[in-house]
Amino acid sequence: MQFTIAFALLCCAIAATLAYPMPDDMTMEPTPPPQYPLNLQGGGGGQRGDGFGFGVQGHQKVWTSDNGRHEIGLNGGYGQHLGGPYGNSEPSWKVGGTYTYRFLN
Protein backbone atom coordinates (compact mmCIF):
# COMPACT_ATOMS: atom_id res chain seq x y z
CA MET A 1 0.00 0.00 0.00
CA GLN A 2 2.81 2.42 0.86
CA PHE A 3 4.49 1.66 -2.48
CA THR A 4 1.26 2.48 -4.33
CA ILE A 5 0.86 5.81 -2.53
CA ALA A 6 4.52 6.74 -3.15
CA PHE A 7 4.18 5.75 -6.83
CA ALA A 8 0.99 7.83 -7.18
CA LEU A 9 2.65 10.88 -5.58
CA LEU A 10 5.66 10.48 -7.91
CA CYS A 11 3.34 10.30 -10.93
CA CYS A 12 1.50 13.43 -9.73
CA ALA A 13 4.79 15.30 -9.32
CA ILE A 14 5.93 14.34 -12.85
CA ALA A 15 2.53 15.28 -14.31
CA ALA A 16 2.59 18.67 -12.54
CA THR A 17 6.09 19.35 -13.92
CA LEU A 18 5.09 18.47 -17.47
CA ALA A 19 1.87 20.49 -17.24
CA TYR A 20 3.75 23.71 -16.33
CA PRO A 21 3.47 26.09 -19.33
CA MET A 22 6.74 26.83 -21.10
CA PRO A 23 7.44 30.23 -22.68
CA ASP A 24 6.92 30.39 -26.44
CA ASP A 25 10.37 31.73 -27.26
CA MET A 26 13.32 30.33 -25.33
CA THR A 27 16.00 32.14 -27.38
CA MET A 28 18.07 34.96 -25.92
CA GLU A 29 17.71 38.53 -27.10
CA PRO A 30 20.43 39.43 -29.64
CA THR A 31 23.36 41.36 -28.26
CA PRO A 32 23.41 44.90 -29.67
CA PRO A 33 26.54 45.91 -31.58
CA PRO A 34 29.12 47.78 -29.52
CA GLN A 35 28.96 51.57 -29.53
CA TYR A 36 32.44 52.94 -30.03
CA PRO A 37 33.33 56.40 -28.75
CA LEU A 38 34.69 59.19 -30.92
CA ASN A 39 37.36 57.89 -33.33
CA LEU A 40 40.47 60.10 -32.96
CA GLN A 41 43.71 59.87 -34.91
CA GLY A 42 46.76 62.06 -34.66
CA GLY A 43 50.41 62.34 -35.44
CA GLY A 44 53.30 64.67 -35.80
CA GLY A 45 56.99 64.98 -36.41
CA GLY A 46 59.79 67.03 -37.80
CA GLN A 47 63.54 67.30 -38.18
CA ARG A 48 66.07 69.35 -36.25
CA GLY A 49 65.92 72.97 -37.33
CA ASP A 50 62.81 72.39 -39.43
CA GLY A 51 60.14 72.78 -36.74
CA PHE A 52 57.40 70.41 -35.73
CA GLY A 53 54.18 69.63 -37.56
CA PHE A 54 51.20 67.82 -36.09
CA GLY A 55 47.59 67.01 -36.85
CA VAL A 56 44.52 65.52 -35.21
CA GLN A 57 41.46 64.08 -36.97
CA GLY A 58 38.21 62.68 -35.63
CA HIS A 59 35.07 60.94 -36.87
CA GLN A 60 31.79 60.28 -35.04
CA LYS A 61 28.66 58.47 -36.24
CA VAL A 62 25.66 60.62 -35.30
CA TRP A 63 22.73 58.69 -36.84
CA THR A 64 22.04 55.17 -38.10
CA SER A 65 18.73 54.05 -39.60
CA ASP A 66 16.69 51.29 -38.00
CA ASN A 67 17.70 48.74 -40.63
CA GLY A 68 21.38 49.81 -40.50
CA ARG A 69 21.66 50.68 -44.19
CA HIS A 70 21.87 54.47 -43.87
CA GLU A 71 24.44 56.23 -41.69
CA ILE A 72 25.46 59.85 -41.16
CA GLY A 73 28.73 60.90 -39.54
CA LEU A 74 30.69 64.07 -38.77
CA ASN A 75 34.40 64.62 -39.42
CA GLY A 76 36.76 67.23 -38.04
CA GLY A 77 40.46 67.95 -37.98
CA TYR A 78 43.16 70.35 -36.89
CA GLY A 79 46.75 70.76 -38.07
CA GLN A 80 49.60 73.23 -37.58
CA HIS A 81 53.36 73.60 -38.08
CA LEU A 82 55.33 75.13 -35.23
CA GLY A 83 58.82 76.62 -35.36
CA GLY A 84 61.44 76.18 -38.04
CA PRO A 85 62.95 78.77 -40.39
CA TYR A 86 59.54 80.11 -41.46
CA GLY A 87 57.97 80.26 -38.00
CA ASN A 88 54.53 79.04 -37.04
CA SER A 89 51.91 78.38 -39.70
CA GLU A 90 48.27 79.35 -39.45
CA PRO A 91 46.13 76.59 -37.93
CA SER A 92 44.31 74.41 -40.45
CA TRP A 93 40.74 73.48 -39.47
CA LYS A 94 38.69 70.86 -41.33
CA VAL A 95 34.99 70.06 -40.89
CA GLY A 96 32.86 67.68 -42.96
CA GLY A 97 30.16 65.08 -43.05
CA THR A 98 29.74 61.59 -44.44
CA TYR A 99 26.75 59.62 -45.67
CA THR A 100 27.01 55.84 -46.06
CA TYR A 101 24.54 53.55 -47.77
CA ARG A 102 25.02 49.79 -47.46
CA PHE A 103 23.60 47.84 -50.43
CA LEU A 104 23.73 44.51 -48.59
CA ASN A 105 23.22 44.32 -44.87
Structure description:
There is one protein chain. The protein is built from one helix and four strands, in the order αββββ. It is α+β, with helices and mostly antiparallel strands and 105 residues long. It has one domain. A four-stranded antiparallel beta sheet has the order 1-2-3-4, with no helix packed on it. A hairpin with a 5-residue loop joins β2 (52-64) and β3 (70-82). The longest helix is centred in the N-terminal third of the chain and has 18 residues, at 2-19. The radius of gyration is 32 Å and the shape is rod-shaped. It starts with a helix and ends with a strand.
Q: Could you say which structural class the secondary elements and strand pairing correspond to? A: alpha+beta
**C-alpha end-to-end distance:** 67 Å
What order do the helices and strands follow?
HEEEE
Q: Report helical residue fraction.
A: 10-25%
Gross geometry? rod-shaped
For the sheet with most strands, the description reads: 4 strands, antiparallel
Total domains, how many?
1
Identify low-pLDDT runs: none
The value of Rg in angstroms is 32 Å
Mean pLDDT, as a whole number? 86
Strand order of the largest sheet: 1-2-3-4
Number of helices: 1
Number of strands: 4
How much of the residues is beta strand, in percent?
Answer: 35-45%
